[in-house]
Structures are given as structure tokens and as C-alpha cells.
Amino acid sequence: MSKVLKKRNDRRRTKKKELLCSPQIQDEVEVQSSIGDLVLAAELMEKVSEETRRGLGEISKCITHDHGDYCVPDDPTVLKQMVKELKKTSYHQNQLLLSLHESLDNKEKQCQELQEKLENDRWMLIADMGQQISQLESEIRNLHCEKEILEKKNRDLQEQLAKSSGTVLYLGQQVKDQESQSEEIRFCMNSIKNENKWVRFYTGFDGYEHLNDFLGFLTADPKLCTGKIRKRTEVGPQSALNLEDQLLLVLTRLRLGLLLQDLAFRFRVSESTVSRYWLNWTELLHARLTQIPILYSSRYLDPFEPKRNIQHQGLNCTILDCTDLFFEVQAKDRVKAASTHPCRNHYLRRGYAIASANGFITFSSSLPFGIATKVMDGQPQEELDGGINPPLKLPPFMQNVPIGLTQEQQDMSRQVLSLLSLIDKVLNFRFLKGIYPQSMEMQVDRAWVICCYLACLLHDPMGLL
Predict the structure, then answer these.
(1) Quick one: CA torsion of 264, 265, 267, 268, rounded to 10 degrees?
(2) Region at 10 (left for phi over 0; alpha for psi -120 to 50; beta for the rest)
(3) Per-residue pLDDT tens for 202-249?
(4) What is the pTM of this model?
(5) Whole-angstrom Cα distance, residue 393 to residue 426?
(6) What are the pLDDT digits (tens) for 139-174?
(7) d(CA 240, CA 268)
(8) CA distance 174 to 168
(9) Summary count for the chain: helices (H), strands (E)
């Protein structure tokens, strides 16, 4: 096979040398050889693609194929046209190849730029992370330092607390001792309740137990206590004194006739607080004590003088004139002294006892009487004027209609035998012996009623003459 190919090639070379002798043939041969090369290259590429499909055995056929006999057009115009088209095709392919190279260069530049940007971003991110890590490490170190400082302070404070615990206990004991001493120095129920002599002197009751029972009786009715007194266990503003000390304050003023300033100093409270306690508790005492039935003996009522018979709201009563209550006359109302009588600096109000026909007695003061008189059973009787301020309210059990007493009223009921003895006991309350301004008329009238009932409670029965 190789010998045949060699002979063919030798014959081809000899033919080419003969044709190349003349210049025309030489030009034609050059054109033909260039065309043949192009055609051979195109056919080779086509065959290579086919060989990729068919197999390696066909490649030898294409290589051994003789292109020397390829048909070349004789017309120079056609040949020239073919050459132009081939040049044009080659030019377009070169241009396309250049554009592809330029595009490839651009892509490579973009890729390089992206790689550089990625590298820069990576280094910036690494730098930021390194900075953050360093900051966090610095903060951790600072926190560790602060923790150590706080732990040291905590240890120091614990040591100081352990050292000062004895001092605190000592100071606490001193505070308790001072409080107990101040409690003993301050005038209160705790300072006198163990001494019956002082309880009797300041309140009139025989002992603390009796006084405590009386306090329970006063506070048993919640309707009367509402808005007047407040216990320390209740919700709201707390009182400066407990209930026992408040009652002690009121009874002490009734028994000794002390001023508000004196009581404020004794109980270590303000004067306005003392005044509020006085008004609230006297209202409560008056409302609660007037519910107690007081019986009297007609044997001691008949010889009592002065007295008068009156009729009030259809009820026959006997008014007993018991004592005088003194009040100051205002400077503008004082009568100028004359040669026949001295200047009057005070005026009087009467303290009365009112006895009903059914055997009960109550108390009031300064009752106005009208001029109208009625004759009943041969004796003149005055009609009580209705313009009383405050109006006279008699207890229900003093009415003509028989009303049964409750169990509480039966237990608390008292009996008065001698009215003279009653008045002596009432006047032991020094508050009634003072001289008060005109603005205190209602307070003194209420105190007269309270003292009369207290005298009945503290002395049972009320003496014999």
C-alpha cells in the first residue's frame, strides 16, 4: 500500500514540474494549489466530523484520498468570484475570531476585577471580624475585671456586716429600751392600766377590766361608730392613738377638766387631733349612753326641789333643776356696771333631769319653757315649747306606750335612788365646773348628759339618804 502511494506521489510531482515551466501555468498552479488547499481543509474538517461518528477506520481513507483530480473551474471570472468569496469568508471568520478574542479579553478582565473585588471584600470582612473580636475580647476582660472588683466589694461588705452585726443588735436593743421608756413617759393607757388607783383617778372606773368592758359596749354598734372612730386594723388613714387612749383622753378631760393644750402635750399629739377626738367621742358617748334605761324611785323624787311638771308631745314629765353651767359673756354683750349691781362676766344654763310617769329618767340642759299652763289633776302644768335647739328627743322606753326592753338594755339598766346623791357624783366631773365660751354651749350640754349617765354606771344603786 505504501509503494502505490509513493508511485502516485512521484507522478504527481513530475506533472507539476512540467506545468510550472510557463508563467501562466505557474499562476494557475498557484491559484489551483491555494484552492485545493482550502477545499482539502474543508473536506478534511467534514471528514473528521464524520469520522467522529463512524470510527477511526475511515480517517485513513480521507487521508489517502487524492485531491489532485479536484475539478477547478476554467472560467477566470468564476474562479475569481470563488476566490473573493473565500477571502470574504476568511475575513469574516477573522473578524469573528477577533471579536471572540476581544469578548474573551473583556470576560477575563471582568473575572479579574470580580476576583480582586472578592479578595478586597474578603480582606475587609476579615478585618471587621478581627476588630469585633478584639472589641469583644476587650469587653470580656473589662467584665472580668468588674466582676473581680464587685466580688471583692461583696466580700468586704460581708465582712463589715459580720463585724457590725453585734453593733446592730446593740443599737436595736437600745432603740427598744428607748421606745419602752418613751412609752412609759408618754401618758397612755399602758402606763396606768396596772394601777387601779390611777385608772380610777383619770377615768372614774374601778379598774382596767371594767373600762375595757365599757369600751366594748361603746363600739358594739357599728352604725354609731362609722365616721366617728377608726380602728388601727381598718383600711385607711390610721389614727395617732388607739381606741383605749382616745377614750382615756375624753374621760380624763371630763374627770379633771383639762384644756386641749394640756391633753395634746400629755398624749404627744396635735391640738387639732385632740379636738377631733373630743368631738367624735362625746357624740358617740351621748348617743350610746342615752340608750341605757335609768329607773328612779318616786320616794326620793317627791321631796326634790326645785322641780316642775310639764307636758311634751303628750307625755307628762317632771323637770328637776339640778345644777348651773357657767359660760362667759362676750365683751360686746357685757352690761356696763351700775351703782346698784356689779358687771356680769358670765351667764348660766341649767342642767336638768327629766322623769317620766312610767318610772324612767333621762337628762338634758337649758330647756325653754312656754308661758301656757294647763291644769291637770288640780295642779298647773307648763307646756314645753317646741322650739328647742337641739330638739328634745326622749328615749322610746319613756313613752306612754309600753315598749319592752331588749336584753342588752336590761343588762345595762341602772337605778337611781337619791337624786341629790346623783348630783354630787356628777359634779365630781370637774369639766362641768369650768367657765366656757359661748361657742361651747352644745359641747357642755352634751357633757352634762354624759356625766349623769357615767355617774349612774359607776355607782349602782345611786346611794340612799
Answers:
(1) 100
(2) alpha
(3) 999 999 999 999 999 898 887 877 766 765 544 445 567 889 999 999
(4) 0.58
(5) 22
(6) 999 999 999 999 999 999 988 888 888 777 777 777
(7) 9
(8) 10
(9) 14, 9
pLDDT category of residue 41 using cuts at 50, 70 and 90? low
CA dihedral 154, 160, 166, 171 (to 10 degrees): -100
CA distance 323 to 352: 7
Lowest mean pLDDT among 172-176, 268-272, 449-453: 172-176
* Cβ pair 366, 349 in contact under 8 A: yes
Q: Using the 8-state DSSP alphabet, how is residue 404 labeled?
A: P
The per-residue pLDDT for range 61-75, each reduced to its tens digit, is 544 444 455 566 678
Cell representation of residue 280: 367624735
Side-chain-side CA neighbours of residue 68 (13 Å): 11
List the grid coordinates of 226.
362609722
Q: Tell the residue number behind the cell numbers 352634762, with chain if given.
A: 448
Distances (CA, A) of 288 to 29, 116, 242, 252, 409: 155, 104, 20, 19, 11
Residue type at 31 in one-letter notation: V
- β-bridge partners, 294: 414
Residue 164 has which C-alpha cell?
Answer: 457590725
Q: Would you mind telling me the total number of residues written for the chain in this entry?
A: 465
Of the candidates 58, 64, 22, the residue with the CA atom closest to the CA atom of residue 40: 64
Mean pLDDT of the region 350-356: 89
**How many angstroms separate the most distant Cα atoms in the chain?**
199
Q: Which of 316, 342, 317, 346 is nearest to 331 (CA)?
A: 346
Tell me, what DSSP letter sits at residue 167?
Answer: H
